[in-house]
Design goal:
The complex is a heterodimer of chains A (111) and B (113).
Chain A: E1 4-7, E2 10-14, E3 19-25, E4 29-37, E5 43-49, E6 52-56, E7 59-64, E8 69-74, E9 83-91, E10 99-101, E11 105-110
Parallel strand pairs in A: 2-11
Antiparallel strand pairs in A: 1-3, 3-8, 4-5, 4-9, 6-7, 7-8, 9-10, 9-11
Chain B: E1 5-7, E2 10-13, E3 19-24, E4 31-38, E5 42-50, E6 53-57, E7 64-68, E8 74-78, E9 87-94, E10 103-104, E11 108-112
Parallel strand pairs in B: 2-11
Antiparallel strand pairs in B: 1-3, 3-8, 4-5, 4-9, 5-6, 7-8, 9-10, 9-11
The chains are: A mainly beta (111), B mainly beta (113).
C-alpha cells in the first residue's frame, strides 16, 4: 500500500497548455513538498505546503488537508518544464515523522 | 552561497564491503536528511539529523546508519553491502528540523557488484 499516490504517471502536453498533477495521501501529515527532478539532474524543491495555496511564477500548488489531496498546476507550460514531479509528505508523530514519496509524474512538454 | 555538497559522486563497491558517504549542508543549515532513490522503489526516506541527533528514521535495516558532526556535516554508512543497495543516495539540508523547504545535493551513485 502506497501512502502517497500521484496521477497521472506520465503526461505529454503541447507548449502553452495548462497542466495539473494530482497527489493523494493516506497518512496524517505535517507538510507536503512538491519536488522537480530533471533527467540526470538533482532534485529541486518547488513548494512546501501545510495549508492553502502557494504561487511561484507559472507554478501554483494547493493543498486540501481535509480531503488529503494536493495539486500542482503549471500555467503556460514550456519545454523546460519537462521533468519528473514528485509529491512528498512528512508524516506526523504517529508515523515516526517519516517522509513518504509518490512515484512521480513524468512530464514532457512538446514545442 | 555554496549548495549541498555530496561526495563522492560515484562509487563502485562489491558485495560484503562497507561504504561511507558524505554530505556537507548549506552553511547555516543544521538539519540533514538522507534518501535512497532506485528505479524500482523510487525515493525512500533513510533518516534525518538535527544538531547531531537522529530525529527520524525510515524503514531500513540496521546496516544503514548515519551520524552528524558539530559542523552539521553528515555521513551515512552502509555495512555488508548487498546488490540491492545499488542506488542514488541523496541528502538534503534545511535550517531547522521544522517543516521547511529542502535543498538537495546532486547525490552519490553507488553501484554494488
Amino acid at each position: 500500500k502506497n501512502e502517497v499516490e500521484q496521477s497521472p504517471q506520465n503526461l505529454t502536453a503541447q507548449e502553452g497548455e495548462f497542466i495539473t498533477i494530482n497527489c493523494s495521501y493516506s497518512v496524517g501529515i505535517s507538510a507536503l513538498h512538491w519536488l522537480q527532478q530533471h533527467p540526470g539532474g538533482g532534485i529541486v524543491s518547488l513548494f512546501m505546503l501545510s495549508s492553502g495555496k502557494k504561487k511561484h511564477g507559472r507554478l501554483i500548488a494547493t493543498i486540501n488537508i481535509q480531503e488529503k489531496h494536493s495539486s500542482l498546476h503549471i500555467t503556460a507550460s514550456h519545454p523546460r518544464d519537462s521533468a519528473v514531479y514528485i509529491c512528498a509528505v512528512k508524516g506526523e508523530r504517529d508515523t515516526g515523522n517519516q517522509f513518504y514519496f509518490g512515484t512521480g509524474t513524468s512530464l514532457t512538454v512538446i514545442p | 552561497k555554496a549548495g549541498v555538497t555530496q561526495t563522492p559522486r560515484y562509487l563502485i563497491k562489491t558485495r560484503g564491503q562497507q561504504v561511507t558517504l558524505s554530505c556537507s549542508p548549506i552553511s547555516g543549515h543544521r538539519s540533514v536528511s538522507w534518501y535512497q532513490q532506485t528505479p524500482g522503489q523510487g525515493l525512500q526516506f533513510l533518516f534525518e539529523y538535527f544538531s547531531e541527533t537522529q530525529r527520524n528514521k525510515g524503514n531500513f535495516p540496521g546496516r544503514f546508519s548515519g551520524r552528524q558532526f558539530s559542523n552539521s556535516r553528515s555521513e551515512m554508512n552502509v555495512s555488508t553491502l548487498e546488490l540491492g543497495d545499488s542506488a542514488l543516495y541523496l541528502c538534503a539540508s534545511s535550517f531547522t528540523d521544522r517543516n521547511e523547504k529542502l535543498f538537495f545535493g546532486s547525490g552519490t551513485q553507488l553501484s554494488v557488484l
